[in-house]
Specification:
There is one protein chain. The longest helix has 28 residues. This protein starts with about 30 loop residues before the first helix and ends with a helix. Helix content is about 65%, strand content about 0%.
Length: about 140
């Protein structure tokens, strides 16, 4: 996994992931593209908030980003499609929380519009992947 490089503008970071893994071939949560994307997003957020002095705001954003990747991992390790789909839904909720906070961070001028926009785009892309994977898991149970 390549290290996310710091920059003034965080680009859409998911292009760093070279290969997609489908659910049918994933043997570990680390194999899942959604987890890889969540990891990149969390690292990008940590980088962009490193000098943030509003510590409560920064810490809440970081908790939301870490929650996305951890819920994916925890759900995968449950070894039940229903449980996994539930945890993916919680991860999607945390991604939405992060996206909402990015608007406030932009309003407070903690981030440039381009930084916030790029991270929101990454959150939206990740949320879409989480929703699709959860729907796939739920359809298997019918």
């Amino acid at each position: 996994m390549p290290k996310v490089q710091r920059s003034e503008v965080i680009p859409n970071i998911f292009h760093l992931i070279e290969a997609s893994t489908t659910m049918s071939t994933a043997e570990r949560f680390e194999d899942l593209r959604v987890w890889q994307e969540a990891r990149l997003l969390a690292n990008a957020l940590y980088d962009i908030t490193e000098m943030q002095r509003d510590y409560a705001f920064r810490d809440q954003m970081r908790r939301a980003a870490v929650s996305v990747m951890n819920n994916i991992a925890e759900g995968f390790e449950r070894h039940s499609d229903a449980d996994f789909a539930h945890f993916l839904t919680m991860a999607k909720g945390s991604s939405g929380e992060l996206r909402s906070m990015l608007y406030l961070g932009e309003d407070r001028q903690y981030f440039t519009p381009e930084q916030a926009g790029n991270l929101r785009t990454s959150c939206e892309s990740l949320s879409g992947g989480l929703a699709k994977l959860a729907a796939y898991l739920r359809s298997k149970g019918q």
